[in-house]
Amino acid sequence: MNDTIKLLQSHRSIRKFEERDIPKSLLRELVCSGQAAATSSHIQAYSIIHVTNKELRNQLVELTGGQKYVASSSDFLVFCADMKRPLEAAKSTGENAVSGMTEQLLVATVDVSLVAQNIAIAAESKGLGICYIGGIRNNPQAVSDMLSLPQHVYPVFGMCIGYPAHDPDIKPRLPVEAVLKENNYSDDTEYVNAFNLTMYHYYQARKGGNKMSNWSQNLAPLFNQKLRSHMQAFLVEKGFEMK
């Protein structure tokens, strides 16, 4: 195990931050590190909105479901899947550019996710902490209006970045055997059952209190309702027609 692997396996979501600014030069280097991620066909279908306005940050707290660390972190980034730039670049050659394809939605979403994870790793390597904010998709139209996002651009998630002011435990992951399958998809019920027990003990022992739950019980509320059912209509309206 080298230092890079140790860093990757020590990730924790940070939700409490010191009142300390990240140097602008460092933030720029983090974004450059993000840009070094793999990108489908060199399309680079992403844009990152650095939200520095305090009023906007406070509004985003409400739009993301009251996640106060959106405002209290040193910096907050909104990662956007962006097909506007590559579509316009293709059109500028005089060729016909087809938009609204499902593949374009997938490519842009994957591209921006790879960029964000590179930034997360780079940030943690410099002693910073991060927290992804999927709550950006709770109110994607309001976020889009706030940030003036044009057609063919949608907000995928946010990221809080700052210097950690707490030291949370590392949350366990599924056993490797559950996710690494050889040659074909195989049943993983045995590993899920074992992981439920692991998570139960984790919740009982972790810092800051305990709760009577496990992995499967935590997932149940995510699947007993149509979560963010507004996303399909929103994406179509944004030009991602999923044709």
Automatic annotation (TrEMBL):
Q: Does the keyword Oxidoreductase apply?
A: yes
- Keywords associated with the record: Flavoprotein, FMN, NADP, Oxidoreductase
What does the record give as EC number?
A: 1.5.1.38
Top class in the EC scheme: oxidoreductase
Q: Is Oxidoreductase given among the entry's keywords?
A: yes
Nitroreductase domain residues are: 9-163
Q: Which domain of life is it from?
A: Bacteria
Q: Extract the GO molecular function terms from the UniProt entry.
A: FMN reductase (NADPH) activity
Q: Which Gene3D superfamilies match?
A: NADH Oxidase
* InterPro entries from the UniProt entry: Flavin_OxRdtase_Frp, Nitroreductase, Nitroreductase-like
What Pfam families would the database entry show?
Nitroreductase
Q: Which family does it belong to?
A: Belongs to the flavin oxidoreductase frp family.
This chain's protein is named Oxygen-insensitive NADPH nitroreductase
Species name = Vreelandella maris
- Species classification: Bacteria, Pseudomonadati, Pseudomonadota, Gammaproteobacteria, Oceanospirillales
